[in-house]
Every structure is written in C-alpha cells, then in structure tokens.
Task: structure prediction
Amino acid sequence: MLSWYALTAHALAKRVALSLLASDEVRQPLSREIEFLETYRKMSWRKFLKYSYDILFAFSEMEQALSAKLEIVISSLDNMHNSNNDIVGVIEDFWARDNLFAFETAAYEQAVDKYLAKRTQITLWPVAFLFRFFDLPVIRFQR
Result:
C-alpha cells in the first residue's frame, strides 16, 4: 500500500502540474484522472484488493496516455510561445511607433516655434510680403 500511495502521489503531482499548463482540451481528461486518483489514493486493503485489477488497469492506461497528453501540452506551449512572441512584437512595434510619433511631433513643434520666432524679425518682412510664407498653420499635438 505504501508504494501505491507513493505512485498516486507522484501521478497526482504530474497531472496537477500538467493541468496548470494545459489548454481546455487536455485539462478536462486530466481533471477526470485527478478525480480518479484522489478517489482511489487512500483506501483500505480490502477495498484495494477488491478493485485492484480495475484500478491498476486504469492507472497503467492513464500513465501510457500521459505521454500523448504531454506532447499536446508542449505543442500548445510552443504555439502559445509563438503567439506570445507575435503579441510582444506587436506591442513593441506599437510603442516604437508611438515613441517615434512623439519625437517627430516634438521636432515639428520646435521647428514651428523657430519659424514663428524668425518671421517676426524685421529683415524677413519684405521677403515674407513678396512670397507670403507667413501663412504656415500652427499645429499642436495633444500628447
């Protein structure tokens, strides 16, 4: 019985760890296995001997099927990893574009301020009158 307790303890720990990482399609069979193991983990000798064939057969079947479930979880983690990289890439691209936009708008506003300061100089008045370049619209970005 002690070896059975040890086996079920390890089996439960493996399945609980996998169920935390697994998607819904893998989590449901794992939760059924966890319920089964918790039901038959601690029992009397008589009950174990009475149901031992069914319990051990189900246990060995669960252990054999666990490798397939593990592959599904690992492949889903790889897919999640790729999608997380895609999501991280999109977020980084957004922030990079936002930072560039902030830099460009600040540079534009500084250029407009310099232009407005220069156009008030007396030396530019005749040229401004001839070419009418005072009509630059002032644009301010709300950041």
In short: The radius of gyration is 35 Å.
